[in-house]
Amino acid sequence: MYKIDEIRNKILCGDALSELKKIPDESVDMILTDPPYGISSEVKITRGRNKMKFKGPDIILKFGEWDIFENLENQMEWTFRWIDECVRILKKGRIFATWFDRDKINFISHYLQKKYQFKTKGYFAHLKSNPVPQARKVKWMNAWEIIGLWQKPGGKLVYNYQLGQQERLYDCTNSRRKRKARSSHPKARKNYRSFHFLLDE
Ligand SMILES: C[S@@+](CC[C@H](N)C(=O)[O-])C[C@H]1O[C@@H](n2cnc3c(N)ncnc32)[C@H](O)[C@@H]1O
Asked: In angstroms, rounded to a whole number, what is the distance separating the alpha carbons of residues 95 and 30?
């Protein structure tokens, strides 16, 4: 087991589940995580060879082996295992926040409320700088992701209103105008400052 002072402001590299197990109970101020949530697909979308489609390079929707799950049960079973550890290490009254597939984030909400009596604090929209383009002219581009926030019971909520009014919006679209400066991952450029107001006393 780690001592919390040894790992403060450090990055622990390793499998999340095994690293989380080494962190003491009720020792962390906040959980903010962007886990694999199974939005990859083996499908390759070819564009530009059909009049009905938008032109452009082909689109590959496979983000990595880490994002491939056998089925929904398997995905949620693994997700709930790391969530159990997050709940254990989080201090009372503090916030668990996560990006997740917006079609499945309610499974997490239900799990946290039913098993641990967490309170839903709301959902953020994360506007993306580089949404996957649409290939066929039948739907919208997915230009936003969802982030859910829940509070652990038994303690006081920390919310620093002196940092100003906060919108439930996590806008990463500035980089749309600075394509050359963009990083390889759409979320990597942001420093998560939208969430600082949950940490300051
Ligand atoms: C949705 S991405 C998050 C990207 C991140 N927000 C960024 O800005 O780079 C999910 C990340 O979880 C990592 N990952 C997948 N399985 C993991 C595991 N079992 N333990 C730790 N990290 C894992 C992947 O390598 C991937 O980088």
From this structure: 5
In the reported structure, the alpha carbon of residue 168 is separated from the centroid of ligand 1 by a whole-number distance in angstroms of 23
Ligand 1 centroid from CA 36, angstroms: 6
What is the tens place of the pLDDT at every residue in 72-126? 999 999 999 999 999 999 999 999 999 999 999 999 999 999 999 999 999 999 8
* pLDDT score, position 49: 63
pLDDT digits (tens, 9 = 90+) for 139-159: 888 899 999 999 999 999 988
Query: Is residue 81 in some structural domain?
Result: yes
Q: Which ligand 1 atom is at minimum distance from the Cα of 186?
A: 8
CATH number at residue 19: 3.40.50.150
Range of the domain at 141: 8-37+75-198
72 CB-near residues (< 8 Å, 6+ apart): 104
| Ligand 1 binding pocket includes 187 (Cβ within 6 Å) | yes
